[in-house]
UniProtKB/TrEMBL annotation:
MF-aspect GO terms: ATP binding; ATP hydrolysis activity
Domain ABC transporter: 13-249
SUPFAM superfamilies per UniProt: P-loop containing nucleoside triphosphate hydrolases
Protein's UniProt name: ATP-binding cassette domain-containing protein
Record-linked InterPro entries: AAA+_ATPase, ABC_transporter-like_ATP-bd, ABC_transporter-like_CS, P-loop_NTPase
SMART domains noted in UniProt: AAA
Transport in keyword set: yes
Source species of the chain: Denitrobaculum tricleocarpae
Short name of any one Pfam family annotated for the protein: ABC_tran
Keywords: ATP-binding, Nucleotide-binding, Transport
Amino acid sequence: MNDATPTNQTPKIQIRGLRKVFGDKVILDGVDLDVGNGESVLVIGGSGSGKSVLLKCILGLLHPDSGSILVDGQEVVGLYGSALEEVRAKFGMLFQNAALFDSLPVWENVAFGLIQGKGMNREDAKIVALEKLASVGLNEDVAELSPAELSGGMRKRVGLARAIASNPEIIFFDEPTTGLDPIMGDVIDRLIVSCVRELGASTLSITHDMASARRISDRIAMLYKGKIIWSGPTKSIDNSGNPYVEQFINGNSEGPIQMQVRSL
Ligand SMILES: Nc1ncnc2c1ncn2[C@@H]1O[C@H](COP(=O)(O)OP(=O)(O)OP(=O)(O)O)[C@@H](O)[C@H]1O
């Protein structure tokens, strides 16, 4: 399947024929996916379907067996060292568990990439961190706390502030609402949408939370058996006409998707 971009511009990310195998397990089996400029794409798929592997291939953390990943038209498969770092500098990422260092105060977690990655001095990096924390609704008192002192929702906010700290062109959201109650999930999703809009960033996200998926994406793509088997506007997800998508979004155990359940 060829995943057409919604505009004629060069896509921000263009993936073609991506294949990744671990031992005898084919995880990605020819993934084709585009993320347009300023577009928010969300990948759905069952546990173990390869969503994280896909993100890791784009970030160069895993090396695909074959296929192509273009970022702004530049091939990133096979890049390493400073060339890979240059591409990675375009990305921000909000990890599932926010992945904060408890040994550093909140502001330093946000400023970490600016100080370590971009060589910014601590004073300037702190100013940026405080600005970004303010943009996700956290004040200067919170900036001095340890992440261990924060609630789950606050940790996500800090993770979001860190993801946007360097004004990235592309942001990955990995399960941004996991572990939050539905109301806090909505709050975080709204923050994500407003921060992304303000930056004009393109996003690629993965989640199991369909309410969140509907809020933070323009387009949804479904990964199944190593391929994107459906992709379409988020607003048409309920009329996909695809039995795999229907089963997934309705959470039915009955349907064409065979979940592997190991009996104990
Ligand atoms: N480094 C690795 N070495 C071997 N197998 C791996 C490695 N990374 C991932 N896998 C396997 O690849 C498959 C896909 O994993 P992945 O984490 O991408 O799934 P996922 O769709 O993100 O799942 P979930 O929704 O549960 O997070 C799994 O079977 C996993 O065990």
